Amino acid sequence: MKRLLNTLFVNQPDVYLSLRGDNVVLSKDKKELAKMPLHNLESIVAFGYTGASPALMGYCAERNISIVFMTKTGRFLARVVGESRGNVVLRKTQYKISESERKSAFIAKNFIVGKVFNNKWVIERSIRDHGLRLDEQRLKGISNTLTELLASIRNVEDLENLRGWEGQAAYSYNKVFDDMILSQKEDFYFHNRNRRPPLDNVNALLSFAYTLLANDTASGLEGVGLDAYVGFLHRDRPGRVSLALDMMEELRGCYADRFVLSLINRNIFTNEDFYQKENGAIILKEESRKKFLQAWQKKKQEKITHPYLKEKISWGLVPHAQALLLARYLRGDIDEYPPFLWK
C-alpha cells in the first residue's frame, strides 16, 4: 500500500477493499492488513484486486472518490465513479488545450525536456559505470550536445520546432546507443531505430518494452480520469493512445532503454531467444516473451526516489505519479507540468 498525493495505491495482489466507518479497510484471506481514512482521498487504485464491497463503492461514489481496478500487471480494467463532476471538467480542459497548438506545445515541451535530460543521464551513467570499456570522449560529446539542445527545447513555443529539436536530440542519442551495448556484439547491435517490423534483436526488445510502457502509461492516465487517446505532441489518430505516447517519452531512456541494455549486457537474452519471419521481422519466441514479462514485472517493483515528489516509490508507479501531476496541472493546482527528471 502506498499513499501518493491524494491517491491510495494498493499494489499487493488479492486484497479485498471494504468500508468501516469513514475508513477503507484492506483485507487478505479475511485478515486485516491496513486501514486508512477516506476523508482526504481523491482515488483508490487497486492492482490485482479480489473485490470491493458495495458499501465502499457507494460511499466513494457519493464523495467523488474514484476506485480504479488494474490487473496485476498494471493493465487498466475499470474506473468506478459517481455522478460526473470534476472529471468532465478535467477532460474538457484536456480537449480544449489539445485543440490549441501553442498551448499543447507548452505542455509537450516538458515531456521532451524530460526525455532529453534522461537520455543524457543514461549516457552519463554508462560512462560512470563502464568508462574503461567505452570511448568516453565520444559519449561526453553527445552528452554535451544534448545539454545544448535542452536550452532550445525549453524556449520552444510551437510544435513544429519542438519536433525538430526532439528529432535532433534523438538522432544524437541513437548515435551512441550501440556503444552502450557491451556484450554479445555479433548478435546485438543498433544501427538505427526500426519498427513495424523490427529488423534486429535490439529493436525487437525495444519495441516490446515500449509497448509495455505505453500500456502502463495509458493505464495511469485513465486511472486519473484523463483521455489517453487525446495528446498534445502526438496528434489525434484513431486507435492511438496519443497522450500515453506523449508522457512515455520522458521514460523511454531511463526506464525502457536501460532495461533492454541490462537484459543484453547481463546475457539474460541471447540470439536463441529470437526467430526471423519471412518478411525479415525479428520476433521474440513465446517462452522468451514470458521471460521478458517476468523481468519487466520485477523491474517495476524496484524502488526509486521520485525527483519531484521526493518520495520513495516503485518504478511501476512512476507513470501513475506523472499522470497525477498532469491532472493537477490541468486543474490549475500547479503552474506547470513537472517532467520526470532522473539521474
From TrEMBL:
Needed co-factor(s): Mg(2+); Mn(2+)
Keywords assigned by UniProt, alphabetized: Antiviral defense, DNA-binding, Endonuclease, Hydrolase, Magnesium, Manganese, Metal-binding, Nuclease
Entry GO MF terms: DNA binding; DNA endonuclease activity; hydrolase activity; metal ion binding
Annotated positions binding Mn(2+): E166, H234, E249
One GO-annotated biological process of the protein: maintenance of CRISPR repeat elements
Gene3D superfamilies reported for this sequence: CRISPR-associated endonuclease Cas1, C-terminal domain, CRISPR-associated endonuclease Cas1, N-terminal domain
Pfam families: Cas_Cas1 (PF01867)
Enzyme class: hydrolase
Known EC number: 3.1.-.-
Subunit note: Homodimer, forms a heterotetramer with a Cas2 homodimer.
Role this protein plays: CRISPR (clustered regularly interspaced short palindromic repeat), is an adaptive immune system that provides protection against mobile genetic elements (viruses, transposable elements and conjugative plasmids). CRISPR clusters contain spacers, sequences complementary to antecedent mobile elements, and target invading nucleic acids. CRISPR clusters are transcribed and processed into CRISPR RNA (crRNA). Acts as a dsDNA endonuclease. Involved in the integration of spacer DNA into the CRISPR cassette.
Family named by the database record: Belongs to the CRISPR-associated endonuclease Cas1 family.
Protein name: CRISPR-associated endonuclease Cas1
